[in-house]
Amino acid sequence: MNAKLPSKVTIGLPVYNGEPFLHEAIESVLQQGHTNFELIISDNGSTDRTETICREFAEKDERIRYYRSDVNRGASWNYNRTFELATGEYFRWLAADDYLAPTLLEKSVTILENHPEVVLAFSWVVDIDADGRELEVKRSTVNSTRQRPNERFRGLSEVRGSHNCEEVFGLIRKDILACTKLIDNYTDSDRTLLAELGLHGPFHEIAESLFYHRLHEKGSVTANPTRHMRAAWFDPKLAQKLVFPNWRQLYEMLMVPLRVPISLQERLLCYKHLFRWTIRRRQHLRKDLVWASRQLLGYS
Question: Hey, how many other C-beta atoms are within 10 angstroms of the C-beta on 105?
Fold first, then answer.
């Protein structure tokens, strides 16, 4: 019997009560032109038909590996769990309400294979509604291709404009992603992750609409409109605690340049950008303190 060859790509699909759109998400993976992949599904204690759907798919295709937690441990734990279980050379996340065009993996793998300096390949994003109707095609608004690390760091950590961090759903070199803190348990940790990946190397944007991002009333941002609510979505243990999401993000951003092997000059330029970043975020930092004061005083 021949030993099973390792997968080139791992797709990590974290899910919690994903029944409405999960079937379409999984089918979009199985329809990929690039077939050398494994699909890791981590179920965060779903109470709907998610488990049934996943087990039915896993029984039919050996490339699908299904894991289930008895309780909901939060989005941060679940996203990172899919990465911890990955064996592929390249890795990407897929939310249970999104889906992929059939050529996305093939074209993303080609970029990483032919351009060893590129750490992440992503495509244009198509926003769709709950019924799958196309709303908008979005191109990246960040400078993730600049030659110098500090310039990429500045572009990927930027908070102005329409940078909504959907590049985090691109195909990433697994060995480089392993050097990061992955998706941490605070709001906008995906922005911090992208900024750190950008210090390792440039991104590549595929000029085609190949990733479909669904906007609906039960989506993570819509259902958790404030940064404090999203902190509890990332980690349920934070629901009853005082949290300072903006201060936490500032601290984590300050740590990023220390973790990546870049020159002292590049590191200092990163901190120059972060000083300006902090000035622009000062009102948000103040809001954290006001919110905490109100909680301590018993105001809602």
Answer: 24
